[in-house]
Each structure stands twice: as C-alpha cells, then as structure tokens.
C-alpha cells in the first residue's frame, strides 16, 4: 500500500525522477511544449504549449503550481519581466497576454497583431515589451499603459523570434525567410538585415556581455554574429536536421542548443566546442532555458514533456 500511495503522489504532480544528469521529467502537457522561462528568482518555471495554456511549475519538485487560461490558441512563447512581476505570453490567437505570476491572474490582453504571435521579449529595464508575429511585424508595447509605442515592419515575412540586447540598445528578430533584422531601439530605426541561414531563423540569443549574437534555424545552421558590426563571426555547426531553440547561460560560459534529433547540445563558449549531448527526449527540443544561477537547464519537447538537467558537471553555476 505504501508503494501504491507513492506512485499516486508522483502521478498527481506529473513527475518522473530519472538518472544521471537528468533531474526530473514533468509530464503535464497533453501536447507539445513550445516555450519555457524561469522567473528571475528561479522559484517558478513557466511553460507555454499546444493546449493554449500557460503552466507554472516548481522547478525543484516538478509540482504544477498553476494553469493560466485565457488564450484560445497555441502558446508560442513566454517571458518574465526583469523584476519577475509580470509574465508575458504570445499565442496563435493573435494576442499577447500579461499575467501576475504571484497571484496567478491575467492583468491584460494586448491586441494589435493580425496573425499569430510567435515571440515576446522584455527590454532590460522592464518598461517595454516586444512581440513578433506572423503578420511580419514587431510591436513595441509600453508596459505602464499597455499601448503600442511603435510597429516595426522590415518586409521580411513571418517573424519567428525577437530579443533585446542586454544593454537595451538593439532589438533583433529572426524571419521565416532566413534573415535577421537589427533595429536601434531608441530611434526604432532599421540598422541592417543579416543573411546567412539556409531556412527560417528559429531562435536568437545575445551573450550576456552583448558582444555576440547566436542564431539557429530550420535549415540546420548554427551561427555566431557581431550584431553591431553586422558581421558573421563563425559558422559554429551545420546539421542535417532542424534546430529549434538556444540559450546562453547567465555567465555566458555555456550555450544550450535544442535540436530536431531529440537532443540538447551543450557548448563551451570559450572554445565553441560541443562538450555534452543531453539525451532523453523522444521528440524535437523546441525550448531551452537556464535557471538564473545557471545550475539547471530546462528543455521542452514535442514529446509533451519538460526535462530538467543538472549542469554542475559542465561548469554550470
């Protein structure tokens, strides 16, 4: 009876504890996990998925803390504000929704896009939210009022991802056409368009010092750029399968790359060498996110699971 009760408890929190390197697996979504984000204090892991919900988890235990409902289409991205007071989500229903993650209620819904919202990102000062859409635009929103400050249309088709530089001076977006668009944030002026991918640019990430920009895409290329000079620094890898997600660790020492082959590759950014492959998912890895202390990596997959990995053996932290 004792073992039966233990099994029921584990089932209730959708948790399966696994072996070396892999801390636990969370089985809460009925379908694909598209996006992941840790709160700045590391106590909450937010996830967006195919079931139109945003779910909040305790990253240490895997316990589901809340299910935030309001979207009526797949949730493609989630992001916490720098102070952790607001959680943003973008979805197939063309809306951006703002949530209070502490009280687990919706604050507002931002509407202005004409097609699905693929990506959301907060400026480093937390005053502005950028949303990228299939309608080919990025909208900059004022968090204090919920109003659109400007709409940026680079003429590059479907925009799949968006990121601010760590100093807040640059905004970048990756397109379905394989280009990377770079804007000056203060003036909202288009600075340049970068070319180098063989297919849609699925993910972008600035190094913590802001000097380099990593990109990956569905054509299999993993590239490193100087975003200010607009120069391709290095072709880090060329795979024969799709690349879906990437993230720098908080210190910038590691980079995680989510791949179609069901694995997460870890790179040492000092030498840009692949130092480990984290195996265990049964579907493409659509999202990766580091905990604020860099010790844990979360990965979300088309196998409907979230896995958390111990990175201390690889210098995480």
The largest sheet, given as strand count, sense and whether it forms a barrel, is: 5 strands, antiparallel
- Return Rg in Å: 18 Å
Strand order of the largest sheet: 1-2-29-28-27
Mean pLDDT: 93
In the CATH hierarchy, what is the class?
Mainly Beta
Number of continuous helical runs: 1
> What's the CATH topology name?
Methylamine Dehydrogenase, Chain H
Question: Which CATH architecture is right?
Answer: 7 Propeller
Could you name the ranges where pLDDT drops below 50 across 5 or more consecutive residues?
1-20
Shape: globular
Order of helices and strands: HEEEEEEEEEEEEEEEEEEEEEEEEEEEEE
Q: Could you say which structural class the secondary elements and strand pairing correspond to?
A: mainly beta
Instruction: Give the end-to-end Cα distance, rounded to a whole number of Å.
Output: 40 Å
By DSSP, the count of extended strands is 29
Detailed description of the structure:
By secondary structure, this protein is mostly beta strands. The protein has one domain (2-314): YVTN repeat-like/Quinoprotein amine dehydrogenase (Methylamine Dehydrogenase, Chain H), CATH 2.130.10.10. The protein is 3% helix and 51% strand. The chain has one helix spanning 2-12, and strands at 15-16, 22-26, 33-38, 45-49, 54-57, 64-68, 75-80, 87-91, 95-100, 105-111, 117-122, 128-133, 138-142, 148-152, 159-164, 170-175, 179-184, 189-195, 201-206, 213-217, 221-226, 231-238, 243-248, 254-259, 264-268, 273-278, 285-290, 296-301, 306-310. The strands form 7 sheets. It has a 5-stranded antiparallel β-sheet. Strands 3-4-5-6 form a 4-stranded antiparallel β-sheet, with no helix packed on it. The longest helix has 11 residues, at 2-12. Residues 1-20 have low confidence and may be disordered.
